[in-house]
Write a structure and sequence with these properties.
Region (Disordered): 1-27, 41-64
Function: May play a role in septum formation.
Largest sheet: 8 strands, mixed
Protein name: Chromosome partitioning protein
Number of domains: 2
Bound molecules: adenosine-5'-triphosphate, magnesium ion
Distance between the termini: 34 Å
Helix content: 40-55%
Biased composition (Low complexity): 9-27
Strand order of the largest sheet: 3-4-2-5-1-6-7-8
Shape: globular
Strand content: 5-15%
Family: Belongs to the ParA family.
Amino acid sequence: MQEKRVSRETSGAAKAANAAASTAEGSSILESLTASSPLAAELADENRRRKKLTTTELTRPGHTRAITVSNQKGGVGKTTSTVNLSAALADQGFNVLVIDIDPQGNASTALGVEHSADTDSVYDVLIEDFALADVVTDCPDIPRLQVVPATIHLAGAEIELVSLVAREQRLARALAEYHRYREENGLQRLDFVFIDCPPSLGLLTVNAFVAAQEVLIPIQCEYYALEGLSQLLNNIGMIQKHLNPPLKVSTILLTMYDGRTNLASQVAGEVREHFPDSVLKSVIPRSVRISEAPSYQQTVITYDRSSTGALAYLEAAAELVQRS
Ligand SMILES: Nc1ncnc2c1ncn2[C@@H]1O[C@H](COP(=O)(O)OP(=O)(O)OP(=O)(O)O)[C@@H](O)[C@H]1O
Ligand SMILES: [Mg+2]
């Protein structure tokens, strides 16, 4: 909402500020503009952030970083963060794999990959012992980004997994085998694997925790944000203890931040106080462009790269790389 309002009201000021920023004498014009208009100040700030991004050097991690994106609370931005961080990292030259392990298949939709019922998918990997290599597909719009899609069959997998051998480790084993497959076939090592979880803590999410070394928790800057978090952290603790000792909550990402409300800044402050070392400095704003992108089977990076939403995810991705 805010973005639409901003672009409608200010195209004149925006052009002036952008033009000012790009000329030699621009800085003084910009200073006088920013002093008189909060909007020009916002644009100047965005310009500065974009410039900083282009001069930030990002180096490949020394090993594949497998990151599970989880929060059992629904609608907090798990899928949105998975697809946009992945797109931002692939855009920056990293090799990225997204594993959609949510029966809703939202990540598969946003990345524009086929996931109708008869598509080979993560279900076949978990239940039918398919190799990941047999179900991985390229994201059509973004080079270096690959996807393991989820189909509706996954809805029954929670129950089907119960009776299978090594039911908690099936994704981890498939992923380890896929890394070997890539090496043997001369494919470049993956830099990042993101696993998009459903809003529950069942066996699908357990498989995702066992297959990763890191957990990224998106937290929506709304009331009730921290509710349920202790249960999530307890579950992660149990996985560390019994199934995957290296697992750690490496990253917390604040999402859907609405700078116009006191509540958003209060929630953000509280989360930073609780988790001082894990919360990214970059905050994802509530943005119309971010919410529109999936209906075009796009990420915000490809849908509208110049939007504040795309900028925020590019910044968050850069921060994620630097924190390795
Ligand atoms: N920064 C944002 N600004 C505006 N809308 C957003 C933003 N992030 C996410 N949304 C919208 O909020 C809704 C929920 O986001 P998303 O699907 O990413 O959450 P989720 O945690 O994956 O949900 P689920 O628990 O159902 O898997 C979607 O409609 C999405 O487009
Ligand atoms: Mg989701």
